[in-house]
Design brief:
- The protein is α+β, with helices and mostly antiparallel strands.
- Helix content is 30%, strand content 18%.
- It has helices at 32-38, 47-65, 113-127, 135-144, 153-162, 169-181, 240-264, 315-329, 384-389, 442-456, 460-474; strands at residues 2-3, 18-19, 75-78, 82-85, 188-197, 213-219, 225-233, 334-342, 347-353, 357-363, 373-377, 414-419, 425-429, 481-490.
- The strands form four sheets. The chain has a five-stranded antiparallel β-sheet. The protein has a five-stranded antiparallel β-sheet with strand order 6-7-8-9-12, covered by helices on one side.
- Helix 7 packs across helix 8 (315-329) and helix 10 (442-456) crosses helix 11 (460-474).
């Protein structure tokens, strides 16, 4: 160790700044971001599934170097060697590594908050479009890009920050990792429940136009559940947002019926009624889809038509149809949308545009005393704030200002496929029902609320839908609030 001389040239000064040189006895693997973004040695979609190997490596590093020895660059990965953790141990004033104070027993060292923040920074940095600046930047990106990041990454990062992990990272994250990897052993069944309210501060005294949200669901003979939530957007309060939302739902229901008819091999009935008043063209006159850019670059997100007789619409085709339906219904109104499909084999998907949200709530096999649920977000936000955040960590502005919506503004849409298991709750909601609380992540609110309702003995899914709407009013009632909760159970005989 060498010490820089004081700036004033004296032999001794009040401040001594050390220069410490660190040499690694073995070659370092690429940083996690380099491994994912540049070398492609780890697919970003496989990141969450590969994390148990990282947790074991982190525990081993902390056992050797002690807590407080991790930085973002410590997390590394190689395609052949796997995970590597480059820990930076503490040093004494003589330049030697300070030995870790070992306690009795064999349990792993608990990471310090610094270590956990470094892990979160490394994980978000690896999947973001630009390098992550700091923890605040990472948490903002987790919130608005959740649907384009690997599913469950937001839950992993929040557990890292909020859990004490006394017995090591691997043990502390094990319940969540098990939940993220859970699959339905057989088929699944579904039931949907919906609650909606105007919001006291949103109400203008006209029940016909005050609530511009709408939602619907359909389960056909195929056993496929299709559901959607639409949030109408009106600039001058003339109710055109509600017109847009209803038109979008009516078009979605027509599409769903066409898909069911295609599965059965039957032509849809020519006199089939629409979902409600003010319906557009009937099933036989669905407008040809337009090409729409997308968020999801995967083949599953392609905007091409699914082809004649196909039982499932491609996301781009569906969004184009809904956009056209809104355009026919109103020249001024628009709508945000989130639609979900759950198949009897447990495969599911969501497609969204705007700031409506989809969340998956799953039971957690957690130790006694912990909240027995976890939640993660399935959809990103298409807002001005999100667009700026893609470019810079200094993003600011109105987080509810939409840059993509049904009704002429479908510059972006997002598509996500995932799997559900019995016990899951799939939530589709407008932004009024997912109103954030100060300094609280909505996923944590959702998990805690679900646990409370479950413990009360009430039917969890309908109670959750009602509780979210009531919560929106308790937070001020500033907006329409609609929550549609799909309860996933085991397949019925």
């Amino acid at each position: 160790m060498s010490v820089e001389p004081p700036a004033d040239g004296t032999e001794y000064g009040a401040v001594a700044l050390p220069e410490i040189r660190v040499e690694w006895p073995q070659a370092l693997a690429p940083t996690l971001r380099d491994s994912v973004v540049d070398a492609h040695s780890l697919d970003r979609e496989e990141l969450v599934a590969a994390l148990p190997g990282l947790w074991r490596a982190v525990d081993a590093a902390l056992d050797l170097a002690g807590p407080g020895s991790l930085v973002v660059e410590s997390v590394r990965h190689d395609a052949y060697e796997g995970w590597q953790v480059a820990a930076l141990p503490r040093y004494d004033l003589d330049g030697r590594v300070r030995p870790r104070e070992r306690g009795d027993g064999t349990q792993h060292v608990a990471p310090q908050l610094r270590d956990r923040r470094a892990l979160v920074g490394a994980l978000v940095d690896a999947v973001a479009e630009r390098p992550c600046l700091d923890l605040r930047d990472a948490l903002q990106m987790l919130d608005v890009f959740a649907g384009t990041f690997p599913p469950g990454l937001d839950a992993v990062c929040r557990r890292l920050l909020g859990h004490e992990l006394r017995h090591g990272v691997a043990a502390g994250l094990a319940p969540l990792q098990e939940a993220l990897d859970r699959r339905a052993p057989g088929g699944v069944s579904t039931l949907c429940f919906r609650e909606s309210a105007v919001g006291s501060r949103k109400a203008k005294g006209d029940p016909a136009t005050d609530n511009e949200d709408t939602a619907g669901a359909l389960t056909g003979p195929s056993g496929v559940l299709r559901c959607a939530v639409f949030d109408g957007v009106t600039g001058d309060g003339d109710g055109s947002g509600g017109t847009a939302a209803r038109a979008a739902l009516e078009q979605a229901v027509r599409r769903w019926r066409l898909e069911e008819a295609a599965v059965a091999g039957d032509a849809p009935p020519s006199d089939q009624p629409a979902a409600g008043p003010g319906a557009g063209p009937g099933p036989g006159s669905v407008e040809a889809p337009r090409s729409v850019p997308r968020d999801d670059p995967s083949p599953a997100g392609a905007g091409a038509s699914a082809g004649p007789g196909s039982p499932v619409s491609r996301p781009g085709e569906l969004i184009a149809e809904l956009d056209a339906a809104v355009g026919r219904a109103t020249a001024t109104g628009s709508a945000a949308a989130v639609l979900a499909t759950v198949r009897p084999d447990g495969t599911a998907s969501v497609v969204s545009v705007g700031d409506t949200e989809a969340w998956l709530v799953r039971p957690l096999r957690a130790p006694a005393g912990e909240i027995p649920y976890t939640a993660w977000r399935l959809t990103p936000a298409h807002t001005g704030f999100a667009e700026r955040l893609r470019v810079t960590a200094d993003a600011a502005g109105e987080e509810s200002q939409l840059v993509s919506f049904l009704g002429g503004g479908t510059a972006r849409w997002a598509h996500r496929t995932f799997r559900v298991a019995p016990g899951d709750l799939l939530l589709l909601a407008t932004d009024g029902a997912t109103e954030p609380e100060r300094d609280r992540w909505f996923g944590a609110v959702l998990a805690e609320l679900t646990a409370q309702l479950d413990a009360s003995g009430r039917p969890t899914a309908p109670a959750l839908a009602a509780a979210l709407v009531q919560r929106a009013e308790a937070l001020g009632g500033w907006d329409n609030a609609t929550a549609l909760v799909c309860a996933v159970g085991e397949a019925k005989d």
